[in-house]
Amino acid sequence: MSLAADKPDCRPFDVVVAGAGLIGAASACLFAHQGLKVALVEAQPQSQPKPQPQAAQSSQPRGAFPPDATDARVSAINLAVGNLFTALGVWSRLNPKLLSRYHAMKVWDRNSAAKISFRADEVGVGEACLGYIIENRVMRAAMLAQLQQSAHATVLHNTAVTGIQQNGAATVTVTLSDQQIVTRLLVGADGCHSRVRELCGISTQFFDFAQDAIVATLSAARGHRATAWQCFLATGPVAMLPLADARCALVWSCDRERAGALMQLNETEFCARLQPLFLSELGALSDLQPRRRFPIVQHHASRYIADSVALVGDAAHSLHPLAGLGANLGFMDAAALAEVVGHAHRHGRHIGQYSVLRRYERWRQGNNALVLAMMRGFKEIFGSRRRAAQAIRSGGMNLVDASPALKTALAKFAGGGCGDIPLLCRRA
Ligand SMILES: Cc1cc2nc3c(=O)[nH]c(=O)nc-3n(C[C@H](O)[C@H](O)[C@H](O)COP(=O)(O)OP(=O)(O)OC[C@H]3O[C@@H](n4cnc5c(N)ncnc54)[C@H](O)[C@@H]3O)c2cc1C
How many angstroms separate the CA atoms of 31 and 334, rounded? Predict the structure, then answer.
């Protein structure tokens, strides 16, 4: 797509966002919402290729998502992100038939009697639900539709960021596969293996859990009852999330060898392995849809910013999906960055200036580091067969389950309502 043909405005962009995943699309919506001229650049073509056969997916290189697979995921979205979608006008674009509100959550440890259950009405989060389960492709489509309507946004598909050149302090020239564009701020939202991060020479600390997550949807005879179910095994957590069409979305995390073996099973064999974990809650499982396999990798970038560049979402951090937090943290990054940039813009300051971007980095990096450390700790404790770890997890779960105050605090944390949250993520 040619920029000149698409938009006649020849001014440099205020912001170029690299990557139109969930977080890049949200970032572009946020900047357009502030009246900034933004280009969203996506390496993949606009229309998604047909799903690949399972055998091909399982041979993906470690840590890389299959090119057409990012949209196969379903996310648990917290209330704060729901507020953000409402503020941006994205919420009204989400098809209500594809939006699932969950009212309860049940988590248990398969190796002990430990459990925690939450109900929205008992933890008093002030909403009718604990959060939302939405397919990534549905959220992304709503945000892209929003950008389509914006006079401030240009979306470029099928072209990748390949180079960056600083032009003094004021602008950056971004080299794409097919052209160059000039911007005052480049936002790297290009995922876990971010090219923008690499081009800026920002190091990141990878931790490989040596696990994959298998995702699929299926039907449960007893229905999901608007509840998110999660069973912790020593081999990894298995979650069944309630979808709007009454089906469940499975996220089964386990070591790569086991994941490879599970991918090879036919539907009957696979359901027979899964069913005992959830039998008393969900009944018989059937109608398994194609499985996808995602590598689970944790990483955290040493810096979130460089000259006129900022990283958001998986480009800055990624974590184990056991608590469904990765995208939620990324949306918070995007909202925080847009808030500090918008403030600078309104006060006539250069939006790519170090002191502006440093405010964003200080706001988000420490918070995300804490969450990443917590998730890694949970993963270790729940994955350990050692007696001490078993005692900690069953004691901890039972303690939380018996304490309304602790449950409320945990529900508030999971709902995104803790700490210094960006203005647009707060309840209107
Ligand atoms: C199995 C699984 C389940 C999960 N469940 C949850 C959940 O319930 N809740 C939750 O909050 N999080 C969840 N997560 C995490 C969440 O999916 C991710 O954190 C989130 O999708 C990251 O979005 P992103 O936009 O930052 O990156 P990505 O989705 O990786 O998007 C990056 C985009 O950048 C594009 N790109 C790459 N390079 C370039 C380039 N050079 N130029 C231009 N474009 C480029 C890519 O094509 C892609 O579209 C889960 C993750 C997994 C693996």
Answer: 9
Contact by Cβ (8 Å): 334, 27:
yes
Helix, strand, or coil here: 411?
A: helix
CA 74 to ligand 1 center in whole angstroms? 11
- Domain 3-425: state its class: alpha beta
Interior/surface letters 302-313, b for 16+ CB within 10 angstroms, e for the rest = ebbbbebbbbbb
Q: Are 282 and 240 in contact (CB under 8 A)?
A: yes
- What does the domain layout of the chain look like in residue ranges? 3-425
CA distance linking residue 41 with residue 326, whole number of Å: 21
Give the whole-angstrom CA distance, residue 209 versus residue 298: 7
CB of 16 sitting under 6 A from ligand 1: no
Give the pTM: 0.91
**Residue 82 alpha carbon to ligand 1 centre in Å:** 18
Rounded CA-CA distance 194/205 in Å is 13
Contact 196, 315 (CB under 8 A): yes
Strand runs labelled E in 110-247: 115-119, 131-135, 153-156, 161-167, 171-176, 180-188, 204-220, 227-233, 236-242
pLDDT single digits (tens) 67-92: 344 467 899 999 999 999 999 999 99
CB of 72 sitting under 6 A from ligand 1: no
Are 428 and 86 spatial neighbours (Cβ–Cβ below 8 Å)?
yes
Q: Could you report the per-residue pLDDT of 103-142, keeping only the tens digit for each?
A: 999 999 888 878 888 888 887 765 679 999 999 999 999 9
Q: What SS3 state is found at 155?
A: strand
DSSP state of 43: S
Residue whose CA is at the smallest distance from ligand 1 atom 50: 321
